[in-house]
Amino acid sequence: MITPPDTKTMKKIFRSSLLLMLISIFTTAASAQQNEIKKRPIKKQDFGVKEYMVDGIKVISKPSTKDIISVALYVRGGTANYTKAQEGIEQLTLNVLAESGSQKYPKDKFNSLLDSYGSSIAASTNEDQGSVTLNCLKNRWNESWDIFADMILHPTFDQNTFNNKKRRITQSD
């Protein structure tokens, strides 16, 4: 004779069965949804992105209705291209570039003008590339672009900024 399970065991069996049934339902629904997505034709969306060349430099632009303009200069490279001994050299270089000013705008003037305009310049790296970005208000575009372009074309690489950044990096290792 088979003895029926107690109520505790019955609840466990019920919960397990319910869980399996729910998993099965969700899996089937997700699978059906994925199949439906696969059937739809992929449409290329045009967001107004334009590509053109300016003095041999590829420029990609996208119009915006916002009052903030973002510009980025991308440099081929990235952390994957350096040995263990050279790790951080690209990040250090771009950070010093972004904080040192330029020939036309020495460091103190560079930083005070950016602050007064509500603009910022920052640097970053990842595995494939490095970048220096400018974010500015639309009504301060001309002034901010002049500072950014001069920094890129005529950098000063301030020695004190370099030493401070290098010291922070080597002390954190």
Note the run of SSEs as H and E.
Answer: HEEEHHEEHH
Cross-sheet strand order for the largest sheet: 3-5-4
Low-confidence stretches: 1-5, 17-30
**Multimeric state of these chains?**
single chain
User: What best-fitting shape do the alpha-carbon axes yield?
Assistant: globular
Radius of gyration over all CA atoms, rounded: 28 Å
Terminus-to-terminus distance:
71 Å
What is the percent of helical residues? 40-55%
Strand composition percent:
15-25%
Helical region count? 5
CATH-derived topology of the domain at 67-172: Cytochrome Bc1 Complex, Chain A, domain 1
Class by SSE composition: alpha+beta
Please count the beta strands (DSSP E, at least 2 residues each): 5
Largest sheet: 3 strands, antiparallel
Highest CATH level, the class of the domain at 67-172: Alpha Beta
Second-tier CATH architecture of the domain at 67-172: 2-Layer Sandwich
Task: Walk me through what this model shows.
By secondary structure, the protein is an alpha+beta fold. It contains five helices and five strands, in the order αβββααββαα. The strands form two sheets. Strands 3-5-4 form a three-stranded antiparallel sheet. α2 runs antiparallel to α5.
Layout of helices and strands:
Blueprint: H1 7-39, E1 50-54, E2 57-61, E3 68-76, H2 89-100, H3 107-117, E4 120-125, E5 129-137, H4 141-153, H5 159-172
Antiparallel strand pairs: 1-2, 3-5, 4-5
Helix pairs in contact: 2-5
